[in-house]
Amino acid sequence: MTNKKSITDEDATLNFRVPKSLKATIVAKAEIEKITSSKYLRNLLESVHNGSYCHLDKLKSEREDFLFSKEFLQLIVWIYRKRENNSREVDKNDLDSYVKTLKRTENFLPKNLVFELDKVLNNLLVVRVSKGYDGDRFDFPKNYSDDKKFNYEKVEKFLLDENILEAFIERGEVNITNIF
Q1: Residue among 94, 96, 105 at smallest CA distance from 72
Q2: Are the CB atoms for 102 and 95 separated by under 8 Å?
Q3: Higher model confidence: residue 101 or residue 178?
Q4: Residues 9-37: pLDDT tens digits?
Q5: Please, what is the angle between helix 162-171 and helix 55-67, to 10°?
Q6: Rounded mean pLDDT of the chain?
Q7: From the CB of residue 138, how many other CB atoms can be counted at a distance below 10 Å?
Q8: What whole-number distance in Å separates Cα of residue 105 and Cα of residue 79?
């Protein structure tokens, strides 16, 4: 444990009682962090007060909610259907919904998957805003250029490998580039 800091005239004190079991837990956690129990409690109270206490749990919950949302699932199914039939037949409301979901992926998916989904987003935006778009097919499923073709394998490896998916949900951006 670190040395105790002396109290100055500018420091205020709080005195209150806690159950022995709670004190034991606080002391044990402070020892793990190699700080005094007072510093541990100060840090804890500051994080609760400034709103950062549950920040990581909130991010984890948001990632999980997005990945298992109806909108994301519908988008992934639609993208996979386009693998077999890349015709531009799509309802305008569905198109708008897919665009909206794709724009949100940056906050909830690894960067390399966002890059892949950006290919789909780019293609959908061209179709949505262009009256004279050449062709009657979406380009992302079967493009000859790798920088425009959607890599289905990357999405499959991410979504189907339970360890990768759980690690990402738990910690956010994880080192999964060597897998892809």
Answers
A1: 105
A2: no
A3: 101
A4: 678 888 889 999 999 999 999 999 999 99
A5: 140
A6: 87
A7: 22
A8: 14
Stronger pLDDT, 145 or 111, i.e. the higher one: 111
Q: How far apart are CA 120 and CA 11, in angstroms?
A: 57
What is the Cα–Cα distance from 115 to 150, expressed in whole angstroms?
9
* Amino acid in position 31: E
N-to-C CA span, the chain: 44
Q: If we measure between CA atoms, which residue out of 86, 87, 157, 175 comes closest to residue 116?
A: 157
Whole-model pTM: value is 0.71
In whole angstroms, give the CA distance from residue 99 to residue 45. 41
Dihedral (C-alpha) 56, 58, 59, 61: value to the nearest 10 degrees? Answer: 120
Distance between CA atoms of residues 116 and 148, nearest Å: 9
Burial readout 76-106 (b: 16 or more C-beta within 10 A, e: otherwise): eebbeebeeebeeebeeeebeebbebbeebe
pLDDT for 56 equals 83
